[in-house]
Amino acid sequence: SHTLKMSWKRLLLSVISSSKKLVGSDLLGNQYYERITSGGRIRRSVEMKRIPDEYQMKDIPPEWERWLRGISKSPPTNEEQEVLLRNKLIMSQKIKELKKKEVFNY
Length: 106
Description:
Strand order of the largest sheet: 1-2-3
Helix content: 40-55%
């Protein structure tokens, strides 16, 4: 009975672990997945939109990096990503304006 129970558990885990589940995508087009290993652990991965040779650190947004590393339990929503992008654009615009002011102040 114990051996049969272990076989069923192993079979169930192999079926679950063989499939990865798409959990979301970022605004750059990268897709993020989750799968359960045969040992029952959750593994997270990304399929990059860019060619791997062209990969740069900025190709994975910080909110997705946190999710990949297990810091965030749930993936960021599209709304959260849009707000973060909007805030980033506002901040970079403010920085440009400050740099212009510094040039004229000298």
